[in-house]
Batch of 2 targets.
Target 1
Amino acid sequence: MKLRTALLGAAAAFAMAPAAYAERGADGEVKLTFPQAVSIMNPYLSGGTKDIYASSMVLEPLAGLDPDGTLVPKLVTEIPTLENGGVSADLMSITWKLIPGLLWSDGTPVTADDAVFTAAYCMDPAGGCAQATKYDGVASVEAVDASTIKITFTAPKPNPYNTFVGALSPLLQKAQFAACQGAAAPTCTDQNSMPVGTGPFKVTGFTVNDTVSMEANPNYRDPAKPAFATAMIKGGGDAESSARAVMETGEFDYAWNTQIPPDSQAAMTAAGKGQFVVAFGTLVERIEMNTTDPSPDLPEGERATAKHPHPILSDIKVRTALSKAIDRSILVEVGYGAGGNPTCNVIPAPAAWASDNTGCLTQDIEGAKALLDEAGWTDTDGDGIRDKDGKKLSLLYQTTVNPIRQDFQALVKDWWSEIGVETELKAIDPGVFFGGDAGSPDTFQKFYADVEMYANNSDSPDPESYLGQYQCKNAPRPETQWQGENINRFCDPAYDAKFAELQKTTDLATRQTLAKQLNDMVTKDSMTVIPLVHRGTLSAHSNALGGVRINSWDSELWNVADWFRVK
Amino acid sequence: MTDISAQQTGGPQPTSKPEKPASARSAIWAQFRSHKGAVFGLAVLGFLVLAVLIGPWIWHPEKLSVAQAMKVRNQPPSLQFPLGTDQLGRDMLQRMMQAGKVSLAVGFVAMIIAITFGTLIGVLAGYFRRLDGPLMRMTDMFLALPLIPLLLVMVMLFRDDIARTMGPELGAFSLIVFAIGITSWMQAARIVRGEVLALKEREYVLAARSIGAAPHRIILRHILPNVVSPVMVAATLGVAEAIITESVLSFLGLGFPPDFPTWGRLLFDGLQYMQLYPERVIWPGLAISLTVLSVNYIGDGLRDALDPRIRGR
Amino acid sequence: MLTFTLRRLLVAIPTLLFISLIIFLLVDLAPGSPLSDIPLTVPPDVRQRMIEALGADQPVFVRYLLWLRQFFWVEPAYLLDGWLGTSLAEGEQRILSWQSRSPVFTVIGQRLPQTLTVIGTAYLLGVAIALPIGIYSAYRQYSMFDQFGTLFAMIGFSVPTFFSGTLFIIIFAVWLGWFPTKYDTQLSVTDWATFVEQLRQMALPVMTLGLANAAVISRYMRSSMLDNMTQDYVRTARAKGMPERTVVLKHVLRNSMIPVVTVIALGIPSIFGGAIITENLFGVNGIGAALIGAINASDLPMVQTLAFIFAVLIVAFNLIADVLYGLLDPRIRYD
């Protein structure tokens, strides 16, 4: 009798299962793993992607971006536009309306004051806010009433969807963070590790650089979500071990950033426990050309500055030849597999913003040789290396320590040797390379090498600020303590003029055309940047986890509320 | 490489009996030869050294273009590629030989630096009470220094100057060997000091001192021969550690340029292919283990050969 | 011996202060910045303000003095407050990590248990395996057992932990599915089932580290025993008709312990220092993983504090080793 009821009960539960994910907390625990552990849950104090993604499960912006780069409302009733009057006709302000009855996870109401406070929190110069660019050009944020937020800009904003949009600028609760503004920001340990949010989960436990434990937010606005009762993010290890924990041992449901060799990707997928998903954003692996002379014979302070143009790379023919010698499809095959595509653009996506420049995709060794001959570089002494006026065509090629980049270095070196260019390779610890320490000779800004390779991306679909990097004034130099984003010291008044035009233009189609022209100016027209691979972020999820929609314009966990257990 | 191993075997000569040097040396050699493990170790080490020195003259496959190499990626061992190929279609045998030259040189030179320095500090600290305090506090400090920042600072300060005066490759070699040596002598120093503290109170040392023997004579004649065996263990461990540490250094950008293979680096690079192509980690792993094993047996044989109590039997 | 110990303790204070200064300067001088992890999309002026908010732009001596004050005054006061309910540290700034903005000692407190259980067990296991192997290998030199022990030791230390650890993961976790690959730090042992779970997740890291430790210690034990086996006093003891057991385990062993004690004493601080690679590989969030993470992120307060605690332990255990020398060999005199 007892067994019978138990069996019946089990059968009933089984029959109910398909409907179960319509109920909050019905699917138990979801386990995520990141190769880098989460340090802090407040994205305003950390620019690290791991921290931003983790906090996006708890903290939410007013609106987010979906996988196509389209705005989706999160805490607001609708996206303000010119048509619905949310954006003022002069593009000087934008007004957001909060969903009525919205609650923080502690049960208190979300009001426009929280947004006003969040803006003040990040714009306080003493707070060291990592997302300050999200509040660039904001004159004031005011609470028109309890549920209406009005943001006024200092100048007309063609793209007003910057502040409070995306995982980089979520809302903080004023009540919780009131004492943490300005210089006190870093000292609020409890607030920074367990922020109160509106997201589908709330933090229940946080061990620094290890584990975040969460449970479903009882006050989440959709009563049926999230499907999982608890969630945890375990950090540490490497891409390999994270991928393995999802794809082979099945210990975890989701692993972010599992960049492993293409062969291993295929082998792990064959294990049948999970699958890899790729988010293509704007990340481009590229070789940057130094337009200045990095010779160690020059005195410190003049080395690698605009005072001394590069003796070899100043000639566009040489730069073009170097690009022509590279077969980008082999690079993709060796390094990224499904996680990359060959590209000739610094802005490869979204499609509407990407130039149709494909000229570099076919390798042309003979063409490259001809160009070098034309430029006067010939092999006069028969040692296989071209020379001119007694100077060898020899380049120093640096990048960070990373197995894929070292493979790329080896391949590029071989191709360049086929066209008679000698290459010396150098690999630098990424912490030093990207650290920007003015005292170190090995930072990518100092660029004490002829060419260097790394990846960079635009943090929003609209690439205005990204393109702004190549203005003359942004060149790193001793006067700026070697800070600056124009790594190549590229300097073209025509570029600066066109960029100023982009800043003023409000019409979307014209903006896109201008962006494409700017992209071409640094790539195919001047060959200052040689884009190689348009890289995606490779993540892995278990076959038992449903609802995953990978996103490159917002947090990858943007729709974690919709995730469910596949039964 | 050859002169390094010569130093290695010739190192502990001060212990040979001075009155009849020739016969003592031949007695040592005879005892060493009778030690099967030692002969085996010497043979294996000799083979490895020959392989990395002469091998490249015998085995030099023609350089493939990138397009050709792409067709032979990740090949298993075959006649054309006796040890297979790597993820870029490069011949593993050729890479193993190139790598061995660097790894063996780094391993032995760094070990010799660390052991010499460690033994010197250990003996001085153990024997002279006045030096004990300062030297051991210095040892404590080196043990406490975090290794990675120390190495990064060393690269930042010295790499460019050394590369300019010695050339990039020799510069990198000296820097690596120096960096490994300077960060791994402490254990040897502490062990030797501990032994010396006990040895110097033994009757024969007291006797030597009481007849007025000079400290350097006591150290050379009576103390050093008796600390040989822990030093030998430290040396064996040191070679393995240096080979591995070199690969760690490459990951800090301190090592050789990235197109310069070493056993440690091949092992580390092969790690992510371990499941698919296990031979990628087996070859370098085997080479390192064989080196360490042979050094260990040679050390065993040497110790027996140098111990007059054993040699007599 | 007592005056020697006291004198050494007194000398330790300036030594440690000096070491702390050297560590501080070294870590500060090392290239790298706390912001190297921040995406390139964050512009330089924002980075500058973040540096200022961390206080990383202050002159190095100001920061060093601040750290000294925080380490020797604020943190102990805070600890007292916790125990006695006083308010000595009221309003004082504790040592904050640059990376996580949480107090360094909170992080250490969270991590110490994992390090002690996993690395400590591995060390104890290593010593427990190594001593008998070393003793018996020496007693029966060149026997089958000795040859096998030698091979085991050689493999143990010629194979780096990053390699053996990955190999164990593939064999025992991926193929056999016996053990988990990631250490769950949230697991609390409350009953038999969780205890078994804890043992399972400790198995792989303990195996990896235990092998490496046992290899090293067994070699020193063996070689030191061999040295003593042929000494005159052993022959005398045997000639007196002493049982072989007493000769080996009492006379020879005691006299062979000096190098072994040194190695073990040097190893104990490294338990607290954690095993950097192993902890990282298995996701054991111990001190070692914290140290490497902090070094990569140029988190100076964290690196400095950990390195200094490490220095204190090294000085302490070397002192203990010196005291033990005197006990093992009464002829060693320090005064």
Target 2
Amino acid sequence: MVDVSQHELVPEHTVLDEETLDGVLADYDIDRTELPKIKYKDPALPDNAEIGDVVEIVRDSRTTDEAVVYRLVIE
Amino acid sequence: TEFDVTDGVHDVIEDTELPRRLKDEVLATAEERGVTKSQANEIATAVEAQYLDTRVDPLDPVGTVSAQSIGEPGTQMTMNTFHYAGVAEMDVTQGLPRLIELVDARKTPDTPVMEVYLEDEYAEERERAHEVVWKIEATKILALGDISTNVADMVVRIDLNEDTLQERWPRVDSTTQIAGEVAETIEGNLGVTVTQDGTILEFGPSEPSYRELLQLVEQLRDIVFKGIEEVSRVVIRREETERGEEFVLYTEGSAFKKALKIEGVDATRTSCNNIHEVHKTLGIEAAREAIINETMTTLEEQGLDDVNIRHLMLVADIMTNDGTIESIGRHGISGNKNSVLARAAFEVTVNHLLDAAIHGESDDLDGVIENVIVGKPVRLGTGDVDLRMGATQTSD
């Protein structure tokens, strides 16, 4: 099988633990359902991610060095 | 760190609110010009002020600005270009049609192509690179030999070309063996018995039937003996990349998932211009990157490279926000707006108003369009700020 995470188009995805997540949501002052979404069957999703989890994505940004974004795992 | 500046200069620049990339740029310049600490301070303050000043203000309508910033250069793009540009002798849709195709999130692009990079041992020699070409390009019977139908004996005869066989199956030594493989493929696909004599293959329908004989020939032409069915042609080019000189393959037709699994294909750099295939194979984040890359290259090819990348990033963010690729337009983003008036203002006005009336929808007047329609201040920029007098009074 092809290891999707090695492709240059795919940024690093990691599952966020609840504690860090609470901090993030408090920072942005939003509910987790307001985050962008990622499908459960997404090939780049880490194996240990479950529906309802939030993944942290560290992109190699074009405008700054790194951009950290979050996506809620759905369906 | 990696910059040869004094600690004083370094600290002054590091203490600013600039993002990493800008700090590095300032540090590099400071190193090059050999500035003193007080000069560095002056530079850092000026750059920081400029940076803070050019940041997007709260309540700025970034979407509208992006729409205008992409739309205006769009008017300068060629309406219909279908030329052989960019890649050697390959036809790739460019310009406005390509941009529309991208934001519409069309299921298959007009001209699907893949850019296939090779693993080191295949990328250096033309011979080895060709091995990968034959694993990708679909080989059909017409490329392998001549077909003749003998109506009197009810047989289809294939004279396989030995040179072609040897070329396309470089790993097998005898052409008879290759012909055997070809015969097996035909048997498997058509359900007939093939008799082999060297590189000559013969077969026919089980019952003598003129119609069936012709049908077999028809079906024979469609069988893929080697390679990926979707790829009709592969162009091989020697290119200068960040890894030095190497062979890169360009395909007409795409099957991204299949291509990545092929031995010799570099599965970390190979890409595809179909954003849906990228989404299916590599996920939503890769699709977002692909949308940005594709839209930016489309603009650059037309000489419109001064469109800021942030506008395209915003478009890609919106298109991939819900975990799937959504198009911009009636069936995608604009069609899913909450406001009835906003949807009605976009396209097919009467239908939207009628549906809303039937379902008893209400409009909260949160967006821009709704407020323009009813003549209220738009809730953007200063329009979204309410001022109130402080409740405490001071006595003198």
